[in-house]
Fold:
Amino acid sequence: MILIGERINGMFNDVKAAIADKNKKVIQDLAIRQTQAGAAYLDVNVGTAAADQEGAIQWLIEAIQEVCSTPLSLDSQKPAVIAAGLKVINAANGVILNSTPLNKKSDAEVFDKYVAMAQSAGPKANIIALTMDKNGVPQNIDTRVEIAAQIISRAAELGFDTQRLFIDTIVLPVKVPNAQVQPSNMLAAMDQIRFMSDPAPHMTIGLSNLSQGASERPLINRVFLIMAISHGLDSAIVDVCDRELMNGVATAEMLMNKQIYSDSFLKIYAAS
Amino acid sequence: MPVPEIVEGFAGSVNRITLGAAPRRTVTVGGARNVVYGGAASDAGQRPLIAMDVLDVRPDDWPDVLLEPFASVADSPGDWAKQCIQEFGADLVCLKFDGIHPDKGNKDATHAVKVTQAVLKAVDLPLVLWGCGNDEKDNEVMPKVSGAAKGQKCLIGTATEDNYKSLTAIAMADDHCLITEAPLDINIAKQVNILVSDMGFPLERIVTFQVTGALGYGIEYAYSIQERQRLAALGGDKMMAMPAICDVGYESWRCKEAKLADAPGWGDTKDRGPMWEAATAICLLQAGVDIIRMRHPKAVATVRNFIDSIWNGSR
Structure:
């Protein structure tokens, strides 16, 4: 399971304040803690905190790279912000460009732009592509699957390896009116998308959005993540410091025969 | 749309371990990045090694066919080891301390140390040092054996789920590599590796051992476990990425089919026994085993020929 630590995001108050005050220590602590908890990548999102998003993402990346070499996931819907991040990042260990829809009303070529950036960032640069297009987030199974198919074929046309592609079927808050049908729609879509190409693309989600505004947030997140793993999810942006969530992932991976069982399977998963 | 060129490959590989330390000769094992016969020749890793058994005492339960090639050296482990290397072309010598077992002579640590020193003096290839299987006696004797070979980077064993602390600590202190043992059980194999590494023992110095089943006596279980271990290593499981050793000599010669003299329809024991041993070894080599313990020189020659033909050039 490729877990991406969600905490370095300007939506969180401590990160927002740290960006405003240029307080590296807060960011570096989060980077180290998430790495120790088992993050394969650290998400980096400036949020709405800074007027100069390009400067802010560069500052964040440089602060993190001073203390750890964990690969980063550059999180922005703006190609210019990602491009700014790529200027200062050490992409040798890997990087994820997070994320692009298939296309936008304002930018029909946005997916191609992300692919071009990934291709020039080296062989370990990956992309998260959302099953979303100029019409917005699909509310049903079929449109998700259809957009995923277009993403996969467009990537092939551009010569971009499917294994560098992470398809995100887009988590919506379960508490939003009429959104309660979406989690099961996502799982059904995943069941189809994973057979679309061989080798299959990775499948990822931004988990925590699911429980936005709800009660029992950690429980909702943990249960859905485990359900999604059983439908082929092999990556997620999560709170890696949630020990119970990590134990759930370890157990699900073991039950799906992705990891050989041992009596110390929980401990060893956290350490690996 | 162009047809993408897909090359199947694995993320992980089997660890490479170098046994022996200067001024003695060293040998390196492991390193495969694919299954046996899979992928490019450069993915095959190091050539598998044959470790010929040398016992600390004259074996009194070996059939004549097996004892005969060693008849003149069976009382002298040093000469026996020399013969295995110079005459029979062994890559390693496995010094097996049968004689310290309470039921097989109950010899003490002084004896074991003397034998170890004699073999170290007689040959310059790395040694495998293998206890008798009685936990109490091994815990008493093997630390002394380890000390006698301190710094020689031998491969010492075996650490089991119920008895690993003493051997692990001493192997760490004396700078040896360690064999972890499991009873034909992949889950326990992983667990022993975890326990040993929890004590601070480096994973890169472990070789795993599954109690081997010979041809006709459970080899299919041994094969599938070794294969699964190789696939786990290739899939990136660090706790399963060790080279594997198996005990073909002892297991093959336990089989009645290998040694029963009074069986006219089965052919001459002179050929039958070595053939049984060679067939068992070749089968396990194909599952991905890296070191095989063997006994009969004829079987060793057959298996060496097989290794040469498959791993040619990867040494």
Remarks:
- The first helix of chain A runs from residue 13 to 21.
- The beta strands of chain A are 2-5, 41-44, 72-75, 95-100, 125-130, 165-168, 202-204, 235-238.
